Amino acid sequence: MSDGPCCGPRREPGPAIGGTTVDVATDAAAASRLRRRLVPLPGGPFQMGSEDSDGFPDDAEGPIREVTVAPFGIAPTTVTNAEFAAFVKRTGYETTAERLGWSFVFAPFLSDSSQPYVRGAVAGTPWWVGVDGADWRHPEGPGSGIGARSNHPVVHISHDDALAYCAWTGSRLPTEAEWEYAARGGLDGARYPWGDDLHPKGRHMCNIWQGDFPWRNTGDDGHLGTAPVRSFRPNGFGLYNMAGNVWEWTADRWEPDTDGPWTMRGGSYLCHHTYCNRYRVAARTHNTGDSSGGNLGFRVVA
């Protein structure tokens, strides 16, 4: 394991694991179901990026510039465990974490029964540990499950896994510009999907860390880990959890025209203003395409 962005640990370079275990073809019925639930957005010009003083210079959020996106449809929520399970049942797909045999888990979530499966902590971010047997079905490793989380976002999803699901549903991942346009919900220049105040009238608007990271999470927003995908109020476009909950893969590389890492947007339940305030609508980070963890999922567009 190597030290990567604080928001999502990355796998060390290693031998290629090969392609997917099945050839994922578009399923007409799955594609039809998805398209019926997409939110149509008109597109057009908007002000992308930020020059926030508390942003991260290396993240290249700025300069603020006008960007135009074409009309597109976007899922109102991230892909859920139930939706991903239907995909796996139909295709037999195995995720990257399943094929490699492990994934990253937030250490405080580990139970006593999962301790024997811990392979080590990430240098510089010891709250992330690699756990044998951790995957989308077992978010905290062996002994954990998703039985009560069917409507939670699927996690431990690599970029490759997200693309496989997109192929099955005839969809794709959003570009960074599409994602930010959608997340803003029509509020050009706002800091968050709902405005500039993190807690308008004292109300929690997203699932992020409450307390002292990483030692104490008060759960004042109602959640310690992932939240159901329709938690909190939607933004002006009717989209849920565009800030916090889980990071979302996009279709863009961190550095255009390279084979480098992929960009992620939205922040997660582990973000906190003293450490990683990347739940702001213009914030961004990145990870390698085969990396996965307990706070990383995706949303689709078409």
Summarize the structure in words.
This protein has 302 residues and is an alpha+beta fold. It has one domain: paralog of FGE (formylglycine-generating enzyme). 15% of the residues lie in helices and 18% in strands. It has five helices and 13 strands. A four-stranded mixed sheet has the order 12-11-10-13, with helices on one face. A three-stranded antiparallel sheet has the order 5-7-6. A hairpin with a 3-residue loop joins strand 8 and strand 9. The two termini are 35 Å apart.
The tally of helices reads 5
**How much of the residues is beta strand, in percent?**
15-25%
The CATH H-level superfamily is paralog of FGE (formylglycine-generating enzyme)
Helix share, percent:
10-25%
The low-pLDDT segments are none
Strand tally is: 13
Based on CA atoms alone, the radius of gyration comes out at 18 Å
Largest sheet: 4 strands, mixed
Order of helices and strands: HEEEEHHEEEHHEEEEEE
Pairing-aware structural class of the strands and helices? alpha+beta
